[in-house]
Write a structure and sequence with these properties.
Chains A, B: Pathway: Cofactor biosynthesis; riboflavin biosynthesis; 5-amino-6-(D-ribitylamino)uracil from GTP: step 3/4; Cofactor biosynthesis; riboflavin biosynthesis; 5-amino-6-(D-ribitylamino)uracil from GTP: step 2/4. 2 copies of one chain form a homodimer. Chain A is an alpha/beta fold. Chain A is 26% helix and 25% strand. Chain A has 9 helices and 14 strands. At the A-B interface, β13 of A face β13 of B. Bound molecules: NADP nicotinamide-adenine-dinucleotide phosphate (2 copies).
Chain lengths: 317, 317
Amino acid sequence: MGHLSDGRWMAAALMLSHRSRGRTAPNPNVGCVLVNDGAVVGRGWTQPGGRPHGEAMALAEAGARARGATCYTTLEPCAHRSHRGPTCSNLLIEAGVARVVIALRDPDPRTDGAGADRLRAAGIDVTTGVLEAEARLAMAGFLTRQAKGRPHVTLKLATSLDGRIALPSGESRWITGPQARAHAHLERARHEAILVGRGTWEIDRPRLDVRLAGLEHRAPRRLVLSSTGDLRSPSDIAGLEGVDHLLVEGGAEAAAAFLRAGLVDRLLLYRAPILLGTGKPALGDIGLPDLASAHGRWSLLDARQLGSDRLEVYANS
Amino acid sequence: MGHLSDGRWMAAALMLSHRSRGRTAPNPNVGCVLVNDGAVVGRGWTQPGGRPHGEAMALAEAGARARGATCYTTLEPCAHRSHRGPTCSNLLIEAGVARVVIALRDPDPRTDGAGADRLRAAGIDVTTGVLEAEARLAMAGFLTRQAKGRPHVTLKLATSLDGRIALPSGESRWITGPQARAHAHLERARHEAILVGRGTWEIDRPRLDVRLAGLEHRAPRRLVLSSTGDLRSPSDIAGLEGVDHLLVEGGAEAAAAFLRAGLVDRLLLYRAPILLGTGKPALGDIGLPDLASAHGRWSLLDARQLGSDRLEVYANS
Ligand SMILES: NC(=O)c1ccc[n+]([C@@H]2O[C@H](COP(=O)([O-])OP(=O)(O)OC[C@H]3O[C@@H](n4cnc5c(N)ncnc54)[C@H](OP(=O)(O)O)[C@@H]3O)[C@@H](O)[C@H]2O)c1
Ligand SMILES: NC(=O)c1ccc[n+]([C@@H]2O[C@H](COP(=O)([O-])OP(=O)(O)OC[C@H]3O[C@@H](n4cnc5c(N)ncnc54)[C@H](OP(=O)(O)O)[C@@H]3O)[C@@H](O)[C@H]2O)c1
């Protein structure tokens, strides 16, 4: 049975899960909070590379205070053995946790309900489905890899009000202001890899790094889409090992190729309050047969003002 | 001296002034509220064609209850004689109004401070500058005509997220949904004239009317921009008699021509949550030398959600 404060504690666990988005592939970025007598006694999140798991880290922090506690975890605790570390459902049982609240059932066939079953069999009270939709967004990389066998793809575009990404001269620095650019760098830190088309690679010579104090080491792997390069087609992303989150940063042709292939899950639109008129359009041909089929594909997830620019985040629906 | 409730009553007067936006040229669309003992005793707004003035209408409604009342008016009451009707400052004095609160001084050289002076000379308490910025927006047509000798110009664009106004086939019905389109029709009713380029006129054969129940009779005058037509250049709008508010509804070339000429005061952007890729861009060449000169020109005035579309209103700054 759910408790009144479950949503609040699960939201805290979700915040922790976001910390390691883009750094845990092929493992999910799980967040975990242990609460005893209304106080947090342990916090954990999947560590870079995928181990330790969030639950193991929170239990280590809590020590003896885990006994009788409630564990809030964004994903069902694992039930399978691994040579890389302990099984979380067993750890929770051994620590004497009284209750486990789970946002999302683990689709990994080695767990998929078996983690919750094992906890229940040990007499632990288990609640599932708390903030499930939010958990799907937070762990989208892992879930997309499980469901579709490819990374979760975010397409970033920085445009003028009239949808241009560069002047006719190719000048594109800068369309958006410093706050929007800093936000875009933070997004980079949350992806295992960034991709640009060969055109952008050669015209802009982008550094594709994370220029944010303290996060410089989080620069993702760089990929170039080119018929003669390391990634020869959008569908080749399925084979990218260790990449569960891919950020596509343009240009127009590369972005269109991903859209045409139906491989964009999330749109990150930074829009500056300027008009450019002629210039480079945001997208090449995305293969639309008519206007009707353009509708109903994108739903607004989030929007915010970043200085004088506006960020809108859309999910493919 | 100002009173605490002045802003609230002036906001009501401004609402009334909006009622006749686009119908009073060459007169300003003034709104007026008479308040006695905390209650509204008269409301008025400039009538179609420009007469009676808002103050005259409010005084007629109030009758004897105008004695000792406070008059809230969006523009300084006129001081000049006209064969078309009475002088408002005189009417207010004769009615025995105790106090007059004015948003904006009348730039018309025949009044320009003389209205307020006459009221003060008659012993009436006069306060000015209440919600002045809002009044400038509400009466922008009259003020632009006074200051620049031309109508106030709004450019409307309905685009996809990537700034397209039509598919490559020319298909553009519909990009935005019914709520956005209804809002755009309401905007039409607030302009004395609508303009499109010859391309749009011939491709879309637009009706350019007001398809809103009860407002059908508010359809503005229709103009086509064409080197061989009734309006041969954007700068010719100065000569349009009886037009203080002009709505430019595209297409890309006509819109760009107005922007290039520096003749757009207000942008009305309806944006649908769709991507189109290739297609007709929103704007042709607006003559930008570089990116830096695109910045700082537009400031966000208003934004709202209309169904699944978003409306943003920008002012030229
Ligand atoms: N404001 C922004 O957000 C932003 C972001 C990025 C870029 N830009 C601007 O965009 C411009 C560059 O854009 P662009 O459209 O010209 O170039 P682009 O999309 O960066 O690169 C085009 C190249 O990508 C490769 N490619 C595209 N589709 C492919 C597919 N399906 N399979 C394999 N390879 C594929 C091809 O490389 P090969 O020819 O080698 O096969 C193609 O020539 C620059 O001016 C840049 O400044 C702006
Ligand atoms: N989604 C929307 O909001 C929206 C709105 C309107 C239109 N559209 C679409 O836009 C497309 C049409 O746009 P368009 O750019 O091709 O045509 P357009 O802008 O409607 O018309 C172009 C014509 O306007 C005249 N013109 C332009 N600049 C001028 C200047 N400085 N002085 C005198 N005349 C000038 C010229 O006429 P002459 O050749 O006669 O000299 C020119 O050929 C259509 O597909 C339509 O569906 C979409």
